[in-house]
Amino acid sequence: MEHDEDSEELRLRVLRALRYNGRESYSRIAAQLGTTRRQVTRFVAQAIERRELQITVSISPDLLGLERFAYLQLLVDGPIRPIREALVAMPETTFVADISGPYAIDAEIRVAADPHLRETVDAIRRLPGVRDVRMHLYESIDINLYSPLRTGRTEFAVDEIDRVIVQHLQQDGRATFRELGEAAGVSPSGARLRLERLTRHGAVKVVGIPVRGNRSEIPSLGVGVNAAGRLEDAVAHVRALEPEFLAITVGRYDLIATLSADSTEELLDLADRLRRHPEISGIDTWANLRIVKEQYGEGDRISASRSRPRVGDRAGSPPPSPPV
């Protein structure tokens, strides 16, 4: 029994390592965790086969022309399924989850210049069964484990070859450089240099995202935080808990965070540490009962344009190649 527990702990540590870098060397992970490359490979292959892990690429909001971000909590009447399906289908949503509490479902939206935000929220309000939408605007995002952060600028040009490489990585985040080169029509070394350049500039990030749909071995908790004193002190305290996500917000809360842990007990302990800290005046928590969408950008939407797409439009990308 103890051997099984040790093996399970090792498996979780392997998957955790890939959350930060989905292309991390299996040999390096094995060396860090004191196991074999074969064991690491087996754990990852099983997790992907069981749909517990998705290794994919996330795209910088800058490359997608996205400027404003908000977190929405929806009060609903009647069945939630049609609302859930509509939210998942919207390209503006990056995160959708069924949650506990009075608000049955939440979503993060990322949009282009105004009035794209208002139009998107209006479209969600008009969904049949949505009674109310509580919106929290992000002033800034401090941490997002699974996505590059917005900088408001990029310093290089993106062309069709980059686009194809990113699209291929979204299907297989650990595709070899030979496979990437064949897909994009360049040599393996050319594909490697392209990906290194995109990564170095914060344009993309290959990550291992836990698939938290019907079941999840990594429970997570949404937290709305109000600061008692200086906001910087509250941010520092939340950051010390190693959240998956942390944003400074405008609205009901000063901060919104996502906490995760390997067990419910550990997650409850993190929430208690927040509650008793002198820089925190209060918190609200909601369990992510089922995360149905966690996707940060699509390769075919990479654009150098700052033009605003229509709500729900996936195909508004101009031709590639201009500087981003």
TrEMBL record:
Domain named Transcription regulator AsnC/Lrp ligand binding: residues: 80-137
Region span, Disordered: 299-324
Keyword DNA-binding: yes
GO cellular component: cytosol
GO terms, molecular function: sequence-specific DNA binding
Keywords: DNA-binding, Transcription, Transcription regulation
HTH asnC-type domain segment(s): 159-198
GO biological process entries: response to amino acid
InterPro entries cross-referenced by the UniProt entry: AsnC-type_HTH_dom, Dimeric_a/b-barrel, Tscrpt_reg_AsnC-like, Tscrpt_reg_AsnC/Lrp_C, WH-like_DNA-bd_sf, WH_DNA-bd_sf
Protein name: Lrp/AsnC family transcriptional regulator
Protein source organism: Leucobacter ruminantium
Lineage of source species: Bacteria, Bacillati, Actinomycetota, Actinomycetes, Micrococcales
